[in-house]
Write a structure and sequence with these properties.
Blueprint (H helix, E strand, L loop, with lengths): L4 E6 L3 H12 L5 E6 L2 H9 L15 E5 L7 H9 L9 E5 L4 H9 L4 E4 L4 H18 L6
Parallel strand pairs: 1-2, 1-3, 3-4, 4-5
């Protein structure tokens, strides 16, 4: 059996978070999603303990799904902290946003996001997008072992 893939989902819209979590449950690769609803909690999850060999530490994510507009600390600040840390240099980060603003897209790629996706307004299309994202990052994407 494949190892369980750990996903950190930072999303303040609970409907979007629930839809995404349901979508990821359907994948053949076992996964565990840790959901936080603001940027501050995302950073706490990632940086409260640096030693991921410690069984008490939060599991190191294989994938980070990051909403752009969140309370307390926005997604760009979280992304900047992630990319400023050697501990997470190899972890793919997918930015999820309702914004298709060119400055937002440029800033995210300037901070080395792996992918920037605009959330469709239609829930059916959003569900399909999340299914495709999960399938790609958990099944097709090959990267070094963590």
């Amino acid at each position: 059996m494949d190892e369980t893939k750990v996903i950190l989902l930072a999303e303040d819209d609970l409907d979007h978070a629930e839809l995404l979590m349901r979508s990821f449950k359907d994948h053949r690769v076992p996964n565990r999603i840790y959901h936080v609803d603001d940027g501050e909690r995302a950073l706490e999850y990632l940086f409260r303990r640096g030693d991921y060999s410690d069984p008490q530490a939060s599991p190191r994510p294989h994938l980070i799904l990051l909403d752009l507009k969140m309370p307390k600390i926005d997604g760009m600040e979280v992304l900047q902290s992630i990319r400023g840390s050697e501990d997470f240099a190899d972890v793919p980060v997918v930015m999820l946003s309702s914004s298709d603003s060119e400055p937002d897209v440029e800033q995210a790629y300037g901070l080395h996001v792996n992918s920037y996706l605009v959330k469709p307004l239609d829930f059916g299309k959003f569900a399909q997008l999340m299914d495709d994202v999960g399938y790609y990052w958990l099944n097709w994407n090959y990267r070094p072992k963590l």
